[in-house]
Each structure stands twice: as structure tokens, then as C-alpha cells.
Design brief:
The chain has five helices and five strands; from the N terminus they run H-E-H-E-H-E-E-H-E-H. It has 165 residues and is α/β, with parallel strands linked by helices.
């Protein structure tokens, strides 16, 4: 499967760490055949693909606003070692999203939250809390959206450190 963010110098490493953490949590929370995972903002299924490779048999439900992305995810994950169900839904209206399961062991979001308003983020956090089974995990991986030019020098400094690696 093509990496949609291959041009980023460290994102592949970060996503590998994320999928390793997800797979470990899935194995510890009852095993891959009994764990249910929710991918918020699943896109074309890139992270789910990595998770399924590391935790064969896992069941992943993915939510995305784009029907095209969900169709691509279904195609990309057909031959994966897990089960995927896509749900079209707008995270800015989470109360309208109907999920295929009533409880999840793990919920994760990768590079989606920065596009939500602060109110939308709060609503999603509450929705996730209700979607998780007791003792479940929520993993959030995202970037900051810099809206103030005063923060630009800090961002440049961080990028300089990353590029020096």
C-alpha cells in the first residue's frame, strides 16, 4: 500500500511506533479475535493496514467523511489479515454517526484532529469516551495547526532538529 505521507522525514517512523503500540494494546486487551478497534478519520486505510499486518485477525471500523476514501480503504484492506467496515460520518456532527459496534477496546485517530474546531474536538472526545469499553484506550496522533506567526520560529526550530537526525 502506498504511503500517503512518504515525503515527511519522520512520519513513517512515527506511524510504525503508533501501529506497534496499537497492536500491543490489542493483544493485551483480549487478543485480536475478540478486540474491536475504531479508526477515526481512517482515510484510505493506511494505519489500519499497518495494524492488521501486526495484529492479524483484528476487526477495525473506520469513520471518514469521504466516501471515496472509504471505498479506497475497503479496496486497500481487502487482502489484509483483518476485517474492515467503513462508516461515512462527519466528526463535526458525531452525534449523527452510527457505529457498527456498541463498544471498542481501542479508538485511535491519526492526523485528523487538527482539522476540527475546538468545539468539534471536545465533542469527539466525549463521543470517544462513550464508544470505549471500560478500560479501553484512546490514542491520538496529530500535528499542531499553527495559527499565530509568533509560533513559526518554534516550528522552524523543531524541523531543523528533525532534519539534523
Amino acid at each position: 500500500m502506498d504511503d500517503p505521507i512518504a515525503r515527511h522525514p519522520t512520519r513513517g517512523e512515527q506511524l510504525d511506533i503508533l501501529t506497534n503500540a496499537l497492536a500491543g494494546i490489542v493483544r493485551e486487551s483480549g487478543g485480536v479475535n475478540s478486540s474491536r478497534v475504531l479508526d477515526i478519520g481512517c482515510g484510505t486505510g493506511f494505519v489500519a493496514h499497518g495494524l492488521m499486518a501486526k495484529a492479524p485477525g483484528v476487526v477495525v471500523d473506520g469513520v471518514d467523511l469521504s466516501l471515496d476514501a472509504l471505498d479506497a480503504a475497503q479496496t486497500n484492506l481487502e487482502s489484509s489479515a483483518g476485517t474492515f467496515t467503513g462508516v461515512c460520518g462527519d466528526l463535526m456532527a458525531v452525534e449523527d454517526i452510527t457505529l457498527p459496534a456498541s463498544g471498542y477496546d481501542v479508538v485511535y485517530s491519526c492526523l485528523t484532529f487538527h482539522d476540527l474546531t475546538d468545539e468539534g474536538k471536545q465533542a469527539v472526545f466525549g463521543w470517544v469516551a462513550k464508544a470505549l469499553r471500560p478500560g479501553g484506550y484512546f490514542l491520538l496522533y496529530d500535528r499542531l495547526r499553527l495559527t499565530s506567526s509568533a509560533l513559526f520560529p518554534l516550528q522552524r526550530s523543531i524541523w531543523s532538529q528533525i532534519e539534523a537526525r
